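tool=predict chain=A
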Amino acid sequence: MIRGPNKEAKRIRHIMHSAISGTTDRLNISTPGRICLFGEHQDYLHLPVIPCAISLRLTLEGRRRTDSMVQIDLPDVRSHERFPLDRTMPYTKERDYFRSAINVLTRHGYTFSGGFECVIRGSIPINAGTSSSSALVVSWINFLTRMSDQAKPVSPDLCGRYAYEAEVLEFHEPGGMMDQYSTAVGGVSFISFHPALEIQPIDVRLETFVLGDSRRPKDTKYILSHVKNQVLEIVAHLSLEHPKFSLHDMRLEGLEQWKQFLSADQFMLLEGTIKNHRITLEAKELLTSKSLDGRRLGELLTRHQSILRDILKISTPKIDRMLDAAMDAGAYGGKINGSGGGGCMFVYAPENPERIAEAIERSGGTSSIVRMDSGTRVEPGKVAD
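tool=predict ok
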């Protein structure tokens, strides 16, 4: 094929830029989903959480284009995105993450001389509480920083921060930071937010989990905002009575003093929030001990679930049936995963995970046997033409 002078000059400049900066024309990124072991509905209150990245992953295969177009194929959801790169990217729909990530990175000093084309596939259940959307945004951020004019990849925790800005802050969403940081960093970690963000990797060897998808979609935005707003109203009300009131300093032993200021439902929700916080701290102590007691881990998961089911009321009858079936088949313990109202559950299943997976399927769900996994990473291999 004979190239025109403008196209040829652009091609030569592109090759020279890639050689000087060390960039590549093609890149494969892989990012895990996650389960929340402890701290469900806690991170947006700036209370700590313990997530675990799992071996269901999303893959982004991308390469440069010689024009300014961004073209993204998502065959799993039969979707396609196509738009031109610009210095300011107006949003055209709710949760316009591909554009918001570019906007966030542009504000942080990244530039893009050309467009990209990508194919995104994954094994993470969608809209089911396992952070498929965060895995997508983290993958996109990881890809863009490496393929930018600066060719400046970021650390996993900064990748999580940029993904949080693109997914939550840009659209004023009610969610917290757990999903972005856990899928970016990977493994098991204790993430605390007060008085400052701190991510503490936990060096623990966990055995198999069984993830069960109820195949019931959930309204994440509504559930998060509904539960979050109720707790924030309680905090605001009690702060008027006592300006130094803080959830971080609350203890179950002194909870009764606040009962006179709250309705019965409000007091129950406050009590549930504090109990979940205490369970998370107990779990951290267990997970960082010299030898892990798997049965004790399962008991803590089940205690957490009882609060999520009976007080926060985010579980569903089908999720409860799936958990009961898994426990009857030998699971150590488990809980609903994510914001609730549908989606997934999981159980800790060091023994006979196949039998437990079958029990979940007989109760109407779909199952996956998963393990803890690493965070977002570059994979070897070539993007298909």
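The domain at 209-370 is CATH 3.30.70.890 (Alpha-Beta Plaits). Residues 1-5, 7-22 have pLDDT under 50 and may be disordered.
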